Amino acid sequence: MRSLFIFLFLFFIQIFSAQEELYANGIFQFEENKIQKIFTDRTRVRQGPDINSPILDSLQTNSRILILKKDDKIIQLGERSANWYKISYQKGGQTREGYVWGGNLCVGYRSKNGYDFLFGLSKTEPRKDKQFGQSFGQNVAGIKVVEDNTLIDEVLFDTGSGESLNFARFNIESGHKLQNVELTLKAAVSGEACGIAGYDQYVLFKDKKLIALPQLMNVGDADVYYHSEHFIFPNDKGGISNAFIWKMEEMEKDEKDKEKMKRSSKTYLWNGHSFKLK
């Protein structure tokens, strides 16, 4: 009976959600008159803001574009919702214009040491919940590294959906001194409401290769619950050489408003090429 109730609950939630007004994910909100970059290779440039509009051109990953105007029309592909944008770009010595879907654009990009690093959402994959047997769409994000307009590596990782995609951050972090690691990248997505999980993804860059570390999750619900995960790297306070430490802290208040704390940690060994749990 309990399983039947859960199935019916999820079924009606899906129907209700389908009838709701469509909103664009916050991470795909781009400012007008600002430079942006293409994330999805061979992104189609269309004559109008519609998937059935004639294709004018296609742009490769890392192409620079100028956002001219955000169109009111929103479409959802998989678990990604975004507006259409009118853009301007240079190609063949000419300035051209057209429309692209916002989900194909970078949500963050950085340049360092002759490399361009791009962060975006790559696709939605069908997954199945093992406990209840329900199918769902899992957003898969990616970080790409480009040198001289040539893609040299890409790493994929699961990320949030819906309200977890209100904000995005993408940075090159300093002060981390793992052996043979040239750069440490950090991509993050998060929401703005209580109880909405945020995800941090660290990626190491060495020898023109990207290496994704275990993903971190953080969530809080006012002052009654929170779950926090973070890494301690070498040269950070408490760090150790050729290793990094995962730390978790969780607090939950019981029915008597008494705090219950949980803490744990794991050490990952780094040999200059890969990591493993100690």
Automatic annotation (TrEMBL):
<dbReference type="InterPro" id="IPR003646">
    <property type="entry name" value="SH3-like_bac-type"/>
</dbReference>
<feature type="domain" description="SH3b">
    <location>
        <begin position="31"/>
        <end position="109"/>
    </location>
</feature>
<dbReference type="Pfam" id="PF08239">
    <property type="entry name" value="SH3_3"/>
</dbReference>
<protein>
    <recommendedName>
        <fullName>SH3b domain-containing protein</fullName>
    </recommendedName>
</protein>
